[in-house]
Amino acid sequence: MADKTFQCRLVTPTEQLLSEAVAYASVPAWDGLFGVLPGRAPILARLGTGELTLEFPGSGGAKGGRRSYAIDGGFVQMSGNLLTVLAERAVPAEKLTESEIEAELKAAETRTVPGDAPDKAAAQAQITRERDWARVRLRTVRHARSKGI
Prior knowledge:
The protein is α+β, with helices and mostly antiparallel strands. It has helices spanning 98-110, 120-147, and strands at residues 6-11, 16-22, 24-29, 32-36, 43-46, 49-56, 65-79, 82-92. It has 2 domains: 6-94, F0F1 ATP synthase delta/epsilon subunit, N-terminal (ATP Synthase, domain 1, Sandwich); 97-147. It is globular.
């Protein structure tokens, strides 16, 4: 009988957030979500900005249930029985505060490119990325709360 779990590591440039056995992962790639089950064919993909959802084996206790993370950029690789998520930014849903993110989003939505910016396209891209990051974190915390994660 095949294993019902695979190892998942979630790493950012500053810390390792997770290294545990999981039963399923929903990964936000740059071109859409994809699911990972044990025995999945190898893959290497670029991460987008979105919600990483992990389902753990068992129905209760510390190891069972789900966890969500807001993810922004990086790469993901499935090789053998190991899923490695190398994210530029990742925050567990339980560490997100809805009111703070709403304030950040409001500020990001009103931000404009300064008239004297040397590279207006790059400045606009940065504003857009920060706005999208705030939106993903807000969606992640709301989704986690609605699912009791």
